[in-house]
Every structure is written in C-alpha cells, then in structure tokens.
Amino acid sequence: MIEARGDGRVEEAVTARLHHDWSVVPGTERTVPVDALCVTHGFSPQLELPVAAGCRLRGGAFTDVDDDQRTSVPGVYAAGEITGIAGAPAARTEGLLAGWAAGGGDPGDRAAAALRRRRDRARAFAGRLAAAHPVGAAWPGWLRPDTIVCRCEETDYGTLLHAADGAAAAPRAPSGSVPARPRPLPGPRLRPHGRRTAPRPGGRRRSPPPARRPAHPARRAREPSS
Ligand SMILES: Cc1cc2nc3c(=O)[nH]c(=O)nc-3n(C[C@H](O)[C@H](O)[C@H](O)COP(=O)(O)OP(=O)(O)OC[C@H]3O[C@@H](n4cnc5c(N)ncnc54)[C@H](O)[C@@H]3O)c2cc1C
Description:
This protein has a domain at 48-132. Helix content is 25%, strand content 10%. Strand 6 and strand 7 (155-156) form a beta hairpin. The longest helix is centred in the middle third of the chain and has 23 residues, at 110-132. By secondary structure, the chain is of the alpha+beta class. The strands form three sheets. A three-stranded antiparallel sheet has the order 1-2-3. Strands 4-5 form a two-stranded antiparallel ribbon. A two-stranded antiparallel sheet has the order 6-7. The protein has five helices and seven strands, in the order E-E-E-H-E-E-H-H-E-E-H-H. It starts with a strand and ends in a 6-residue tail after the last helix. The site of flavin-adenine dinucleotide has 9 residues, from helix 1 and helix 2.
C-alpha cells in the first residue's frame, strides 16, 4: 500500500508491487476504492512513562538500559517492549531480571546469569526477525510534495523539505525563549535530504516543492489532473 486518498476520510488506496528495496515496480500501481484501511509494519512502544521519568532513550525509539535493565535514572528499571520489541518471553525474562536487580539481588548469582542468557537469546531472535523484514530504503520515493507527513499539523512533505533547506539559515530563537520539546517519535523517520530528485513511481520525476502550501491531498485527489 503506497498511498491513501480521500476527502475527510479514506476513499481510495493505491497498491503496488515493490522491489526488494521497496521501490515501486513500474506499471503495478492499482487504485482500489476502500471504506477503511489498516496498515502496519513493525511495532512502536509507548514511551510516555520512561520519558516522564527522564530516562535516556536509545535511538529515540526505546528506553536505554544496562545489562541488568537499569535505566539512566538511578532507581528506575525498565523491562519489556519499552526496551526493545522481542516478544513475550523476552519481556517476561527482562521483568524477572529487573525485579532481581531492583530487589538488591546479587548480580553475580547464577540465577541472574541464567536470566541474562535467556533474555539475550530472545533478543537475538527478535534481531534476526527484524533484519529479515527491514523497511526498504527506497520508500521515500513514494512521497510527493503534497503528501501529508504529520496529520496533527497537516504538514506536507514539500513544507518539510523547505524547512530542512532553511534550517541552516533560520534565525536562532531569541535568548530566553523556551523551544517546544518534541515528543519522541519511535520507528523509522523521514530522511528528506538528497531524496527530492528520486524518481516517482512510474518513472516521472517530482516537481520541486511548491512555494505555497498545497491543498490537502484529499481535496487534490478530487481535482481534475492538469
Ligand atoms: C496482536 C499481538 C499478538 C502477539 N503475539 C505474540 C506471540 O504470539 N508471541 C509473543 O512472544 N509475543 C506476542 N506479542 C507481543 C507480546 O504481547 C509482547 O511482547 C508483550 O506483551 C510485551 O510485554 P510488555 O510488558 O513489555 O508490554 P505490554 O504487555 O504491552 O504491557 C504494557 C502495559 O503498560 C500499560 N501502559 C502503557 N503506557 C502506560 C502509561 N502511560 N501509563 C500507565 N500504563 C501504561 C499498557 O496499558 C499495558 O498494560 C503479540 C502482541 C500483539 C499486540
């Protein structure tokens, strides 16, 4: 599924066959009328609690923990999917280990060592699974300037590219002002630099980002193409 279109609600989905790198196989796009759409790839944990506790994150997506599930905040331990997606056995074992450490258990105890080994086996399996199903590097080729990237702000890809271009030249915030603290966004992120001339699905090249913010793509989908 490479595109969702609609006016206020989803009305059409565009599917396509993909190459190994997730670039679109030309000529395979198909537009399907839909009432609803469910799409997922991978998982993202809810990080509100570790973020609220001030725990350091790893890669912006998971809580950073040491070998005994200690976070960067003294006295705070983390276990399960907030430290990495590895399935129920890994989460349970991490919980046992965190409980052991939090309860003052001897870190050199054989029971703790066995828990660490069991956890590491489960994590290694999850790592292999994730490596077998990566997000293809060519997916940004699906984006157009009017593709909505953030629905909360209705920010489109063209605006994002403009912002990325202007970031270096942008004036600094006045001293004393407090910059907004963005909520960490887990999972793969857009990497707009160097992508703008990537060919669109079907081989056409993208037009440069528009000077003005384009209409919502849902509305544009209804406009006759020129
Ligand atoms: C559909 C589905 C099928 C799955 N099948 C398998 C399977 O076959 N085998 C397997 O190994 N794993 C499977 N899993 C994964 C497995 O469920 C998880 O790995 C496991 O539950 C992780 O445990 P956890 O304690 O880390 O997180 P969870 O079990 O998700 O527990 C986290 C808890 O924290 C609560 N919470 C979150 N944020 C807050 C907050 N801000 N304040 C208060 N509470 C909060 C949540 O409500 C939840 O109760 C599956 C998951 C899903 C969704």
